[in-house]
Amino acid sequence: MQSIQQSNYSNIYHLLMHNDKLSKQMIADELGLSLPTVTSNLNRLSDQQLIMKNGQLESKIGRRATAYSINHNAFLSIGIEVFQKYATITVINLKHEVLAIHTVNIPFANSDQYAAALADQVRWVLQNNGYNEKAILGAGIGIQGLIDSAGTTVLWGKILDCTGMRAERFSQFLPFPVRFYHDADCVAAAEYAANPHDGIVLSIGEHFGSAMIVAGKILRSTTGRDGTMEHISINPRHGRPCYCGRRGCIETYCSLSSLLQPTETLNSFFANLKQDDPAVKKRFAEYLDYLAESIYNLHMFIDVPIIIGGRLSKFITSPVLEELRKRLRAISVFPENERYVKVGHVADNAVAIGAAIPFIDEKLSSI
Asked: What is this protein's function per UniProt (predicted)?
């Protein structure tokens, strides 16, 4: 009986989660439950502030029924992306809606002083927006490095020089759990939340990263090395040197660091490209050649959609995408539809958003 009661409670909550607003009768009809059962569970969910009354539904006859909706802000989650010179903090709710974004210029250091300073910024965001710390499920930190399966330790962090850093360094300054996530996994989580499909997600920002989504889950192992396709070499002997110590890695040809000159930004680069700057056009054509080769190598490994995510995705217009697909057609071994390449939906702050999502999804699955 207890199991049935819990199932009714969960089913009513998740039915409301997938609908804007419903009445008691609509819930009873949809789930095949009695009105007293629905009423009891709605009262329980209301007492826990998980749902709320949301006006009344239109009715052609009789009294208008009270409408019920999810309280999407009952619980919140924090996501943080750390870079060498700055960090971005975001707050999302149960609907994966971004409620706040804050970027702060704070140089990264593997130290308690840095962790305390970042925690101060997190608390400022919460206080400035009027969010109760007790509503926070946890904070996820997107790291440029390999993370253990529990999210507690950086197993390999060459870019930030943070190998061995532990999440407890940050959680000691915050009243809620803190976990680490590989930054490319965060981008994949953000993309899946926006458009749930399996595939390979490419995180193309300052650095190149990738993650695989299989059966709705991001592929992870205890070693943290899943999906590190950025270190597949396309020219191991004479290629460009990579920070990993090898040569010719995809990272060295397809990251934004490999495309942009030190004084350029993405905006300025594509502005010059639009003005038909010959040098910029040549550089971008070479970049697309390398990107096509890299994508095709991944496609030969596993035939799933390949989603271009990260900061570059905002600039992949239809003409640019067609240029990329034209290159894929030219190098394709087999006759096939080259439209397996798609553009992502979350271009801005994808790492910070994706780092916050696991705490939300875990809470929803527990209700």
From this structure: Transcriptional repressor of xylose-utilizing enzymes.
* Residue pair 90/349 in contact by the 8 Å Cβ criterion: yes
Concatenating the DSSP letter of every residue in 55-72 gives EE---SSSSPPEEEEE-T
The CATH class for the domain spanning 76-188+351-366 reads alpha beta
State the CATH architecture for 2-70: Orthogonal Bundle (1.10)
Q: Is the pTM of this model over 0.85?
A: yes
What tens-digit pLDDT sequence spans the chain (367 residues)? Answer: 566 667 899 999 999 999 999 999 999 999 999 999 999 999 999 999 999 998 888 765 567 889 999 999 999 999 999 999 999 999 999 999 999 999 999 999 999 999 999 999 999 999 999 999 999 999 999 999 999 999 999 999 999 999 999 999 999 999 999 999 999 999 999 999 999 999 999 999 999 999 999 999 998 887 877 778 999 999 999 999 999 999 999 999 999 999 999 989 999 999 999 999 999 999 999 999 999 999 999 999 888 999 999 999 999 999 999 999 999 999 998 887 668 999 999 989 999 999 999 999 999 999 9
* Pairing between β-strand 199-204 and β-strand 306-309 as defined by DSSP bridges: parallel
CATH code matching the domain that covers 196-343, chosen among 3.40.50.2300, 3.30.420.40, 3.40.50.720, 3.30.70.330: 3.30.420.40
